[in-house]
Specification:
heterodimer, A: mainly alpha, Helicase, Ruva Protein, domain 3, B: alpha/beta, Glutaredoxin, 5-stranded mixed β-sheet, two-stranded antiparallel sheet
Chain lengths: ~160, ~210
């Protein structure tokens, strides 16, 4: 137990040193954010909508909206700046696509080969449903035929 | 053959083929739309306190390297740039660093420790990095004399790749295109026609091309 407590205290002491410059940088960014003017709810909602559509370049699996990384934070600021400068959401998205390619979009555009991404799940779902329906109907038919046969043979008790 | 017997291979074969194709691709290799695009201009303060504008370097082959003092892979390639600066001294070549998500103090210490006399600009709000579609560090862009991005390298640059690209770009007049294999072709580059990261040039040169990590 004493060893665990010592290890815990050691980790607590070491963690700020491990964070190093990243910690200092995050602190600077937070300070900068704190000095920002009061939020415009409508603008912020628009920023969130656009950021939710973009993939965070450093986290990959998260959207720019969900990512806590410094890069995502800067991208959100840039979206805000561009909207304030009068760009439309489509123009802001186009800016990122021009730099990062379509990879930056979490949802690929429904065009060309990308249609496969949108249509394949629908086809697979319909195919699966059709398979289940056909199989179920066959089972019912077979069951009915077996029941009829048993009735015919006078073996209703087997049912 | 009954429909049931056909249905299983008809479903399984395309799925297996799709998965097999996926295994041949490196998920870290993301095609960049930037090679063939005009380099985005920027003006920023350097670590030495000067102001540098990319437009002022027009007429030179510019190698823009995004780096950070916390980036382990940046250590590997830094020596390549130090050698290149020496090798191409007196030619129309300019090495240029962009400090990514780092403090100027750390970046200055790093440069002082590892050498190199080229300027590095500070990018406090990552605007330059976003403009250049940076995923992480290290990432390096090769700009020709006319100001066109000719190659984007994700991951460390090695000497062979550096020499191959810079020699070709120095030999050519502005507005000549480098393809994805690093070969030069005539004509003004437009749109997304040129090469991209992780292409044959990097692999042929034995580059350890990989996705930059923050």
């Amino acid at each position: 137990m004493a060893t665990r407590i010592t290890l815990f205290l050691l980790l607590l002491a070491v963690s700020p040193a491990v964070e190093g410059s990243g910690f200092a940088f995050a602190q600077e960014t937070q300070e900068a954010a704190a000095t920002m003017p009061a939020e415009d709810p409508e603008l912020e909602a628009q920023v969130r909508r656009i950021a939710a559509k973009l993939r965070c370049p450093t986290c990959r699996a998260l959207s720019v909206q969900d990512s806590p990384s410094g890069m995502a934070q800067e991208m959100r600021s840039l979206i805000r700046e561009q909207l304030l400068a009068g760009k439309t959401p489509a123009e802001v998205e186009a800016y990122f696509v021009e730099r990062y390619g379509e990879w930056i979009l979490l949802e690929p555009k429904a065009e060309g080969f990308n249609w496969a991404v949108w249509l394949l799940p629908v086809f697979l779902l319909l195919g699966g449903l059709a398979f289940v329906l056909i199989t179920a109907r066959r089972w019912v038919r077979e069951g009915q035929a077996r029941a009829a046969a048993l009735v015919k043979e006078g073996q209703e008790g087997e049912l | 053959m009954s429909l049931k017997k056909l249905l299983i291979p008809a479903t399984a074969i395309p799925i297996v083929a799709l998965l097999a194709y996926g295994l041949t691709r490196d998920p870290n290799m993301i095609e960049s739309p930037l090679p063939g695009h005009e380099a985005f201009d920027f003006t920023s303060a350097t670590l030495d306190g000067d102001t540098l504008s990319l437009a002022d370097l027009r007429g030179k082959v510019v190698v823009i390297n995004f780096w950070a003092s916390w980036c382990i892979a940046c250590i590997d390639e830094h020596q390549v740039f130090v050698e290149a600066e020496r090798y191409y001294a007196g030619q129309d070549f300019q090495m240029l660093g962009v400090v990514y998500q780092d403090t100027p103090e750390n970046a200055r210490r790093w440069m002082a420790r590892r050498g190199g006399n080229w300027p590095s600009v500070i990018d406090p709000s990552s605007r330059i990095a976003i403009d250049y579609g940076v995923y992480g560090v290290p990432e390096t862009y090769f700009i020709d004399k006319g100001g066109w991005i000719q190659h984007k390298q994700i991951g460390p640059v090695n000497t062979l790749l550096m020499r191959d690209l810079v020699d070709r770009l120095l030999a050519e007049s502005p507005g000549t295109e480098v393809t994805s294999t690093g070969a030069l072709e005539g004509g003004v580059p437009t749109g997304r026609s040129a090469g991209h990261t992780g292409d044959a040039a990097g692999q042929a040169a034995g580059s350890d091309t990989q996705e930059g990590q923050p």
